[in-house]
Amino acid sequence: MSIPSIKATSPAKFDPFIIRKTNYKIVNDHPIGVDILIPKSIKTGKRPLVVRFHGGFLVSGASLFPWFFPNWVLEFVTIQSAIVVSADYRLLPESSGKNILEDIVDLWNWVYNDLQTYLDIHESGLKVDFEHILVIGDSSGSYLALQSALTQPADSIKMLACLYPHVDVGSKQYNTKFEKNPFGTPMLPPEIVDAHVKATAPGAVVTSAIPPARIDVAISMVQNGRYLDFLGHDESLLPIEVIANVDRMPPMLVTHGRDDSVVPVGESERLVEVFRKKHPNTPVRLNIQPGDHGFDGEATPETEWLKEDISFIVEHWLA
């Protein structure tokens, strides 16, 4: 893994935005937050919407953790003068996969029912164009982006972008113990997870954690093949299987690093294979580039390998 640049990790990357913070639900007296990012250069009137989900194995991460928010995405939405919604959600292992999916459904309800009212109060003159919604996720954020496409009404999402997606959660990679070294991490003992669970108070709700916090818990889960023990085994939690049973999906972009040590590139290849088999007439683009997990950390919308991906997004999101 290459060391991320100051640009990739600095909160200054959010300086071009007005950031509004609110909550979209409360669980056990714990508010779950949502951030609305509005480019300072945004045009008034009706603007397209981006709903973005952060990664972290569904165990760690936060809505505005800079390293997990690709620079090119921020620059791209600024160019497109788009409104961005980026939310937190309940995390494993304190909560289950079903709990997380409940949060995603509730977030979408908030987007459709409350976002415009919130903007009318705080950013008058801006209107959300609900006819042009792009959903984007990085790593396990792609799991939630994909689940959004599977659970929201057909055609409500115009375009889906999955960056190095952690979505094949039922595979041996996450549920069988064998040697695997995310970012070169040696095998960690299962007791790391056990101790964390033992120390968790009943009913505890955790919705954000700034890495490296809890990353050891996530890696131990994966290395020791215990991921579904905490996510859950219900078929609704396995999006690649669900794709094969739905009639409609939005166009989808998938990008992945060929040398990914966290989420094997074969995961994206299988996702696209299943997608194409079930939805042969729906556009899908797979772009595999050299690099490890988060390989696009230094990319901008002008980066050569990314230009066709940007055009693909614009074509299907804003048409």
In this structure, how is the largest beta sheet organized? 8 strands, mixed
Query: First CA to last CA: what distance?
Result: 37 Å
**Proportion of strand residues:** 15-25%
**Number of H/I helices:** 12
Radius of gyration, in angstroms, nearest whole number: 19 Å
Mean pLDDT across every amino acid position: 96
Strand order of the largest sheet: 1-2-4-3-5-6-7-8
Helix content percent band: 25-40%
Along the chain, the helix and strand elements come as HEEEHEHHEHEHHHHHEHEH
Q: Which structural class do the helices and strands define?
A: alpha/beta
Low-confidence stretches: none
Sum up the overall morphology in one term: globular
User: How many strands?
Assistant: 8
Task: Describe how the helices and strands are arranged.
Layout: H1 6-9, E1 17-27, E2 30-39, E3 45-53, H2 71-79, E4 83-87, H3 97-113, H4 115-122, E5 126-138, H5 140-151, E6 159-163, H6 172-175, H7 191-198, H8 215-223, H9 227-231, H10 239-243, E7 252-257, H11 265-278, E8 284-289, H12 307-317
Parallel strand pairs: 3-4, 3-5, 5-6, 6-7, 7-8
Antiparallel strand pairs: 1-2, 2-4
Question: What would you note in describing this structure?
Answer:
- This protein has about 325 residues and is of the alpha/beta class.
- The chain is built from 12 helices and 8 strands.
- The protein has helices spanning about 5-10, 70-80, 95-115, 115-120, 140-150, 170-175, 190-200, 215-225, 225-230, 240-245, 265-280, 305-315, and strands spanning about 15-25, 30-40, 45-55, 85, 125-140, 160-165, 250-255, 285-290.
- It has an 8-stranded mixed beta sheet with strand order 1-2-4-3-5-6-7-8, sandwiched between helices.
- Strand 7, helix 11 (about 265-280) and strand 8 (about 285-290) form a beta-alpha-beta unit.
- Helix 3 (about 95-115) crosses helix 5 (about 140-150).
- The termini are far apart.
